[in-house]
Amino acid sequence: MKPLLPIVALLLTSTAASAELTPQDILESWGDYYARFGGAFNIGETEVTGTTTLYSNVTAEMNIAGNISRYFIGYISVQSNADGSVDITFSPESTSTISAETYGDKVEAHASYDLGTLSLHAEGSPENIQYSFSAPIITVQQSQSQSGLDISTTIAMQGIIGTLNSGTTNGLITQTGQTNMAFLSAKIAIESAEKQKTLVDYGSENVSISYDMSLPEMLNPASLQTMLFPEGAVFGMAVTTGAATTNVDQKTEGGTGRFSLTQSSGALTAAFAENALSYGITATGATLSLANTPAQPFDFTAGFSRFHWGITLPVRKSDTPAPFALALALEGLTVGPEIWAKVDPDTTLSQTPASFAFSINGTAKLFVDLFDQTAFTALRGAPFELRALSLSSLSLEFEGMGLTGAGDVTFNNDSIDPMSGMPEPSGVLDFSITGALGMLDKIGQLGLIEPMIIIGAKGALGMFATPNSGPDSFTSRIEFTDGGHISVNGQQVK
């Protein structure tokens, strides 16, 4: 889907200065967009018939961080209206070629688009254009080749309706957009040089995409060759879906397999501001399965009520530490009867849903820009230096056992442990655990783990945890002190 985005981005910017919109205003604004990214936007032929202007053989090109994108649209038709607005339609024949080199591996992707049903209405002034658009269906077909791998993709977007607002204020290009789709489908076929074939089939209803972005009107061309986001850029995006299904079929010489995932809803977020890049993924009400032919021991079914993963990272080299964060949650995890039949045929365990979640944050200093491929290739040693780490929260619920934890640790990078290569830590982590002994007894009854291991685990719990007031309840404090010393509940272990 990536090659479609710059074509849609043609519709986003405006810098001309007149009281109402004209076809020339629209095309000039799109040309300015490509020029800011070190590219070009060209019109082959122009034909004016009454209030309609037809631009034929339209081409565009971008070069960002070594990724060269070239686009061709058969024609763009712009209709001028008496109220100063314009209506825009596109040729069904549109194509693109994207060439890139990643760590010495050349990648080239070719795509064709059918934008023939897309209707675009623009109004406002050239300094602040408001677009509204709709299309019963837009299709994209893409083929991509690289060393030992061929990929083909077909995307269909149905029942499209949305808005785009674009303007230039105080030296910043601002853009906001909202797109809703009744249904989105994607099919991806991957074939390796070893004749291993993978087919991904995705479908989702009620897809919503929103974003907002601001860019400096005057971009530094050099930053476009090393950074995914130019300095001064701010970007935010959210994608939500209703019920969705993903099937992944794989065929090898040894047989075939299918992985399936269904979910009642999902969300994807992405954001960039200053020196922080963030991503988040959430899925709810999911079931998943893996089936192989011939059958394999790890065939399974499972489900969960909610999954969430989120990360925030610094992206630019800096002399001062920058914040980072990571969160992971898996709630209401269940596994199918085929798994329980193997590990717990006598239902020794309660087989109730399990949950796990943790959240950490801290600071780190980057020695190179995260997206500077040349600098990474030349780098000798770690690309970052860890300065501080906090365990904001930790929780685990499994078979009657509950575990929680929190704490803060800082790192002295002037004192490196010669054995681990890690900087010296300083700080405290606190943990609380309930039901651990009962859970270990149940696990021991399964017969899957040697009894001595269970005994050793209970001994370690008694050694490194302090009994609490309640039954089968413990607390533990881990302290990191100067000199690389580590103590657990006051007992030095290092």
Task: Give an account of the 3D structure.
The chain is mainly beta. It contains six helices and 27 strands. It has a 27-stranded antiparallel β-sheet that branches. α5 (436-446) packs antiparallel against α6 (451-464). It starts with a helix and ends with a strand.
Summed up:
The chain has 494 residues and is mainly β. It has helices at 4-9, 23-36, 337-343, 373-378, 436-446, 451-464; strands at residues 40-42, 45-49, 52-64, 67-80, 86-90, 94-102, 105-114, 119-125, 128-146, 149-169, 172-192, 197-216, 234-241, 244-252, 255-263, 265-273, 276-293, 300-313, 322-335, 354-366, 384-398, 401-416, 423-434, 466-467, 473-481, 485-488, 491-492. It has a 27-stranded antiparallel β-sheet that branches.
Strand content: over 45%
Q: Count the strands?
A: 27
Shape descriptor reads: globular
Alpha carbon gyration radius: 28 Å
Low-confidence stretches: 1-19
Count of runs of 4 or more consecutive helical residues: 6
Mean pLDDT: 86
In this structure, how is the largest beta sheet organized? 27 strands, antiparallel
Distance between the termini: 53 Å
Label the structural class.
mainly beta
Please bin the fraction of helical residues. Answer: 10-25%
